[in-house]
Protein: DNA repair protein RadA
Amino acid sequence: MAKTKSFRCSACGANFTKWSGRCDGCGDWNTIVEEAPLSAGPASKSLGAKRGSALELSDLSTEEAPPPRTTSGIGELDRVLGGGLVASSAILVGGDPGIGKSTLLLQAAAEFARSGLKVMYISGEEASAQVRMRARRLGLADAPVQLAAATNLRDILTTLEEERPQLAIIDSIQTMWADNVESAPGSVSQVRAAAHELTTFAKRKGVSVILVGHVTKEGQIAGPRVVEHMVDTVLYFEGERGHQFRILRAVKNRFGPADEIGVFEMTGAGLAQVMNPSALFLSERGTPSPGSVVFAGVEGTRPVLVEFQALVAPSPHSQPRRTVVGWDGGRLAMILAVLEARCGIPFTGLDVYLNVAGGMKISEPAADLAVAAALVSAREDSALPAETVVFGEISLSGALRPAPQSENRLKEAQKLGFTAAITPSGGKALADMGLKLTQMGDLTAFVGDIFGA
Ligand code: TYD
Ligand code: MG
Structure:
């Protein structure tokens, strides 16, 4: 049988049967590379292939106990994991180079070790002495973590087999290489092979593994995307350069809610937990000004208040600018279109800038109304009433839809000293939280009542 070749995009992970210069999946150039096949499909009987065993769905016990978990004591991390580290699970922690992944995981390694787990931290990027120096800087020098510096997968698997840690941290998957795969470390085939070996080892031997993956689109370095489907949990560590906040976000979790976030602050002595992110994100807020609106959001199970800032100015360009930081550009275009078509508020000839303060990324549709409020407020040069939070989804017809977890949002706003809230009408009746509640059915009524526009 002729060997079929397989190609994969190192940025988005899309699969192709032939090479091309540009990926049809993500549109990036020069990201497609040939990859070595992982396995050869079903083997013929003569080779002694084993038949897999199958079970009826009803045969499975319905009373399965929840998986055993170990908590690190770092609450922000444990919550994102779904309540602690599940035994034999495989976790990917992705993020930009320099964002703080090694720092976070060294701190996690130390805390899990102090909680009684046997932990091994394997670095392919730094010598053990450098890792030890980092640990000393973080005040973790006395933690009972085993350190190893290695990049050869065979060596690593042998070490893990002998030492049998309960948690192995691999920093980073891009530096690991399998000697049976003929391509450079960091290539898609290598990253995939190493991740496959390590995750199957984890399942078979009852070792939890945390793989660190750099997110980058440059050159031959494969993005962690190709690893995402092999692991149980995918966490991304994000933040803006120039801001001290870092956010650990679960984007996939077989053992807990996705969309959960943990908030950290970078300090000279490592990452510190932020127990009350709303207070932090709003800490730079001054007196109410046009274009600034506080959104009562929910990330996973936790309410988080953030400030949207909009600036609207006459454009010197023939094609006015639409610049967004921390929110979705497509969604902004939709809100602008609804404001124009349903409320008669055009933004033609105007540059629009929208920013989420504090380096936070928001993806909830419930932020629509806060964004619309910020845009109209900036355009009309009229500030929203002081100490007011806003939330609600906007439909293309201009109708406002109630947001999930409304009571949680209001409770958080009240806790932080806000006195009023503007929300969509309908949905579940909201309990009186001591906030002045203004409920609106559609966007036209909202801009008319609040801004007289
Ligand atoms: P590092 O953890 O090495 O990032 P990554 O592994 O994602 O590439 O962190 C980058 C640099 O930032 C490193 O020099 C240490 C420094 N740093 C701090 O000083 N304090 C902190 O809280 C963090 C997270 C990093
Ligand atoms: Mg690192």
